[in-house]
Fold:
Amino acid sequence: MINLDQLTVKLPGFAVQDVSLQVAPGEFFALLGPTGSGKTVILESIAGLVHVTAGGIRVDGKDITRLPPEQRRIGIVYQDYALFPHLTVMDNICYGLRYFDLDMQQARQRIDHLVELLGLQNIIHRRPLHLSGGEKQRVCLARALSVNPSVLLLDEPLSALDPNFREEIRRVLKKLHGELGITFMMVTHDFSEALYLADRVGVIRNGRMEQVGSTEDIFLRPANPFVAEFVGMKNIFAARVADQGIEFGGLSCPLPEPAICRQGVLALRPEDIVLQRENGFSDGYVHYAGVIEQIVPAGLWHEISVRCREACFKTIMDRKTLMSHSYNEGDAVYLGFQTDAVRVF
Ligand SMILES: Nc1ncnc2c1ncn2[C@@H]1O[C@H](COP(=O)(O)OP(=O)(O)OP(=O)(O)O)[C@@H](O)[C@H]1O
Structure:
């Protein structure tokens, strides 16, 4: 269990301010935020690698705010591996043991178990130079877990990996978390990673916590336009409350309940928007006539921009559907969405 109580870390030109957070025992928590928002500073303050200016950190009920790193029983894994090139895999895994007061027989048993769990049996005598990215990251996980930590901190553990190994390490992390039952806290700027791995998420902006909640909550019910945009709501419009709903981009959107629109923003996820050639939308859908402005291939999907009056909507479509409807730039279409997909801030 991790407990941050108004954690404040002041650095030259940047500060983490009053971050309070509770991560339950055995939980997988993801700390999300754009680059430079302070995620690593928070992680490193938990590990004892940066000085905490004010507030406190407790792990499993114990105040560790001023303890040196080696007395915290916390493992940390970085994106760039940081393995010793001159040591074998086994020596890298065992390197940290000397700094901890551990029962060596138990430590050896634990390492044998980790080597098996992480599938490292065939590479324990190799040096890091001869390992793939996925293998290096599995070695780092074994090294961080060798000291039997109660908390494992992961700083963007997937971002240096190419896509195939990323998938592999994602599965490894899920399996490790399931089998070891310890608390995981992972920093990432990729919401899809958090969606796959984490139970709960905290979104950081500029050193402050913007929202904490279940991954589903953050995804479906972002608390403000910043979080909405961060979790992929690509349709964000200036809006205002009107007689029967809300107005934006020269359009009117009736809503079943009166909207509270304090920040004057309406947001929609691209995947909640449907396109049709003819207007066949059923009740419950809000729909507008528009024109396809742009079709951009994006991997397995195409991103389609549709202009309806002054509002330019973004939606996504798989290649097969796009082909079967023969949609092209310049085509007149109807665009619709259900009112419960609309978020108003
Ligand atoms: N030791 C330090 N001294 C001064 N400034 C620092 C120090 N460590 C980090 N910073 C600054 O604090 C800010 C937050 O950095 P941090 O590494 O926590 O961001 P982040 O959210 O992890 O970003 P990224 O996703 O790019 O890793 C940055 O502006 C960074 O330059």
The chain has nine helices and 20 strands.
